[in-house]
Amino acid sequence: MADLARYSLLAAVLILSACANVPVSRPEAVNVKTGTLTPEYSSFNAKVLSEAGSIDTSFVTSLRPEIETVTRLESAYTYKFGEAREQLRVGDAVSTSGMWGSSVRYGGMQFGTRTETRSDIITNSGLAASGLAVLPTVADALFASAGDPGASLAQQNLSVDRSWRTGGLTASDALGRSVAIEAPMIASTRLVEEGCSDLSVGAGKVRRDYAIVSNEYGPTFANTTVTCGVPLGFTVEGHGEYIADETAAVGIGVARRIGPFGTASFSYASSRADAGTGWLAGMGFEHRNDWFSVALRSRIQSREFRGAGATVLDDPIMQRDLASVGVNVTKDANLSLAYATQTTWSRERMNVIALRQSLAVGRGALSMSAGHSLEENIGSSIFVSYKLPFGFARQHRSLVQEFEPIILNPTLIQDYE
């Protein structure tokens, strides 16, 4: 009987997806999406939109008898204040992170003009997370694929492996669900115009056992990110994050474009937790044009520093350095190189180097991805893939993008008709 109920529920989801394109009179609309995560899991998302705001909800269904048949992922109402940029979200949200901070999933409220987090943070909603729902970064995933479990990944029973089909990184949770990680290793620095209209304020409770149970919330959480453009072309950012009985951290970031050379940034933060009072300092530089791109990030921190993403660590990071270079070699070929290294306070060091090349061959694209860890007993890997589309293709150049070690999309963008 229980199996019949599960199959009936999945059938209902498929029927709803078939009806998703039914037109609704303006100014309101209804969007429904379904997807299959694995043969045992399906996802469902529904959103009702109007000129004033939207209501959205999502959940996953499962055929496995040992877990819940339906598990809620996110539910929220978003209200837009007329023509203003401000909006209010009530329900489940992802916190902003600033230049140096972490993002978490929480239930509560979020207000401001900026609601998205840094592009290097993995926000895929289909992954289950044990414990507090702190979101890992692509750098965390890259080190995890080379043998280091990583702070956020280990705490949440997440693992990272290379896809045998593409060579890209895939993250897997304890329930067997896996997703491709599609995000850059180094996020671009945000520069804003003069004024302090770029802000986000959030408060509520951190999600616990996200996508495993529906309505489990943990300690009280709050965070604030305010970014201002000041005279002389500087962008100044203030960011703070707080988890009750865990940690409180506050810091500042400064960035400026240095003429045609690129953008430089610096950040500093201080935290207070059971481990004591700690500090973090970071710096970065990036340059991008039509022919090549360079991005550098470095951070160093004291043993006692604890942000929202590292509240429980036996061996915290002491230093992490990231570098990437991308070059348009010819009209039809692109070469990207990335290097990442980190040292913990117990002097454990990891070095990872990755190379990617994309080349247009006929109407298709040939991609090669190689990775190597400089540590013993880790080894190397190389993946080669060729994509040949059906139909006709026209090719045009794209700007060089910062190295994304887990994506094998060719540099040439191809539109198929």
From TrEMBL:
Protein name per its UniProtKB record: Outer membrane usher protein FimD/PapC
GO molecular function, one term: fimbrial usher porin activity
Signal peptide: 1-20
GO cellular component entries: cell outer membrane
Keyword Transcription regulation among record annotations: no
Classification via InterPro entries: Fimb_usher
Domain of life: Bacteria
GO biological process: pilus assembly
Keyword Signal assigned: yes
PROSITE patterns assigned to the protein according to its UniProt record, in alphabetical order: PROKAR_LIPOPROTEIN
This protein's UniProt keywords: Signal
